[in-house]
Amino acid sequence: MQALAELKDQIRKALPELDVVIGWQQGYDALHTRPLFIRSEEDIDKLVVNEFCVVNPSSYLREMRGGKKVGLVLKGCDSRSVIQLIQEELLNKDDLTIFGFGCNGVLNHAKLQARFGDIGYIESAESDGNTVNLVVAGNKETAPFAELCAEKCLTCSYPNTLQCSHFAGEESDKKAEAAQDKALEEFEQLSMEERFAFWQDQMRRCIRCYACRNACPMCVCKDHCLANSRQPKWLSEDVDVQNNFMFQMIHVMHLTGRCVECGECERACPMDIPIMLLRRKMAGIVRDVFAYNAGTNAEDTSPLMRFEVEEPTIEERH
Amino acid sequence: MSGSTGLLTEGQDLRIVGFLCNWCSYGGADTAGVARFEQPTDLRVIRVPCSGRIDPLFIARALLSGADGVLVSGCHPRDCHYAEGNFYARRRLEMLKQFLSVTGIDPERFHYTWVSASEGQRWQDVVTSFTERIRKLGPAPKMSGGTGYDEECLKEIAAAVSLGEQCPCHKEKA
After folding, report:
1. Keyword Iron: yes or no (chain B) (predicted)?
2. pLDDT tens-place string over residues A255-278
3. ipTM, 2 decimals?
4. Do A289 and B95 touch (CB under 8 A)?
5. Which structural domains are found in chain A, ordered by start?
6. How far is A284 from chain B (nearest CA, A)?
């Protein structure tokens, strides 16, 4: 891949100025990557960029505040979370060096597993953004990208890294497969009672491990999270439907106008609860009402931090 | 399905939580009281300094804890005692209002509006029509609901294990 060689070159040149560069390296098999922290020249060769680079490296930034010079290799969607953090003055733009590239989308392990039985059988998978070529138990298989990709890639309009200092390779011209969120639309066909029942079933499975919160690049409160607060006490230690649901409400409400829909919460969920439905709904409302996409412009102000005296898009409630 | 207890029995009270701002709506409710306007008695009022003080999570918490309805009322836009609290509140409350539908909580159970301290008559109308609306919707569905599909799964697993088979999640997939 040409972009990868260029990326490595750019990182090599920039590394002396930087404390660390965060990217991805090959994981324990062909289908997994894990985060890579480049601190020296030797580490650079471990860098990989492929359709399994699902982790959002900017989630590590909250641990790194305080003047460290950090480089980041970011997909388009990941770069939005960095822009949002800069906008909120939680990061200093001057401390960051962003290495960008054109992304053709990432694949979803749960979908691979559903299709091929067990991802252990899959020896390799490569995607060009339209079709995925796989080797499954020795046999070559192909599948349309849209059937195996992460849900967020279906509606992605930012395949290229935004506001990056270095850009490697060619820009991706990947278009969103659908303007509308099909999964959400389908869900909204259900009646209120069915939706309520659905979430209760899902929330009963939740073990409240807070993986969704910890993976979220926008959850910057760390030890001061409302969910752990004793005074006021928002959540009890009980792991029941009501408390789990309330925790999701807290997460969604705190992400209103901030969520960049990177999908890390849902990916990190060990119970595979489709919590992105809630986030995507909220982000959609913000788009509809305020014509605002979080994390696309560091100079902008989040819609809930400002107001208009006359709100043309909000129906007056009598 | 959702565990709703069905229709209200005659005379049963609803649990409606009202968040009223100190300067306008609480005064408006007081005006209605002083003028002896007849009002439904299902509303429990929580007085807050300003509608801008209301975290949408207050409302979410009330609804998830079994409130049948939540009514929020503040000063009319441009009339906020703190000049701009209700402008921020309007944006937040609108977000919550539109969001609730995806959670399966009927957005009709939540209403926000503006009532000034002199509008005793308007307060009576707001409370009466909101209570009427909630009365039609009936009590909120209980949290113990769901389809119970997970319990079915557990039973299946228990049965499989008791027969000496592996649990379904570890069975070799065909």
Report:
1. yes
2. 999 999 999 999 999 998 999 999
3. 0.90
4. yes
5. 1-103+157-174 (no CATH), 107-149 (3.10.450), 180-318 (no CATH)
6. 10
